[in-house]
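Need a sequence for this fold. Nothing fancy.
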């Protein structure tokens, strides 16, 4: 056996455990979910009705359900709001952390602290922060005279299109939760830009705003593109904070595809409908991934 062949065998042996985990915990559940979407899998009727093949009937049922259509719109809005905010806020925070300021190491440590907070704890903290009677936000707004009645962040059922106070509230929690990842990736991108470029711009008299839009953002576009794709995919399939904070309520205003699928499967026993709803997460994620790959190829031509 040649040295190259031995190297390939060694690499295969080292990769095999990870590939096996991906197949068992990632690919198999995905394929099984897609398979279930074509069957009538009612947990409460399976003993006498079985699991007959129904083709696209589950998808037809979903598109006739106003609650699902609202959930789909909520998911897309949630993804766009969270991703946009994380890119903007993350870029600002990363720019500060990349500056030569005192206490920079401490600030960098603080910026990644949300990463170490378990999802259940984070949800409990945010529910307390946003509860009408105990909310420190309401107390502050009362103190400065901006409101007369408590703001019902997670209970207000009024909305403008798909935007509502509960959806924006869970978006804020998700932004806080996802900020460390955005900051770390954007900070790495900023540090890859040569300081000589900024020094040349300063000599030419470029203002900070001109430097940001003419140097920083254009040179950060590859990093921003990767981060945007990752954040969109992660947010579209996000479950934990939404389920723990609101369970999809009130009035279906915060329901997302992941929570809707969970409710159909484990509350209503409709695994076929749950599989069909979950497949939309896969389709949206695939569209985002393919869109990123095509854009990246076009940019590198």
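Here you go.
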């Amino acid at each position: 056996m040649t040295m190259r062949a031995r190297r390939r065998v060694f690499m295969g042996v080292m990769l095999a455990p990870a590939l096996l985990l991906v197949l068992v915990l990632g690919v198999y559940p995905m394929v099984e979910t897609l398979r279930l979407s074509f069957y009538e899998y009612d947990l409460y009727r399976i003993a006498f009705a079985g699991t007959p093949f129904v083709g696209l009937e589950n998808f037809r049922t979903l598109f006739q359900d106003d609650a699902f259509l609202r959930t789909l719109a909520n998911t897309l809005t949630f993804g766009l709001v969270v991703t946009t905010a994380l890119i903007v806020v993350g870029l600002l925070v990363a720019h500060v952390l990349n500056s030569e300021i005192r206490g920079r190491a401490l600030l960098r440590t603080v910026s990644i602290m949300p990463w170490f907070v378990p999802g259940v704890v984070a949800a409990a903290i945010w529910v307390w922060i946003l509860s009408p009677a105990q909310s420190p936000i309401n107390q502050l707004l009362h103190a400065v005279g901006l409101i007369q009645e408590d703001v019902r962040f997670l209970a207000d059922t009024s909305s403008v299109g798909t935007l509502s106070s509960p959806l924006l509230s869970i978006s804020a929690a998700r932004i806080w939760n996802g900020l460390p990842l955005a900051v770390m990736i954007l900070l790495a991108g900023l540090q890859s830009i040569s300081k000589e470029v900024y020094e040349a711009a300063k000599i030419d008299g470029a203002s900070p705003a001109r430097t940001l839009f003419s140097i920083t953002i254009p040179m950060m576009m590859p990093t921003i593109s990767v981060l945007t794709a990752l954040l969109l995919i992660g947010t579209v399939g996000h479950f934990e904070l939404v389920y723990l904070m609101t369970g999809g309520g009130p009035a279906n205003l915060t329901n997302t595809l992941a929570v809707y699928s969970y409710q159909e499967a484990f509350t209503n026993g409709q695994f076929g409908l749950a599989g069909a709803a979950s497949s939309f997460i896969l389709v949206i994620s695939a569209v985002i991934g393919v869109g990123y790959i095509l854009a990246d190829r076009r940019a590198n031509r």
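For context: The longest strand covers residues 159-160.
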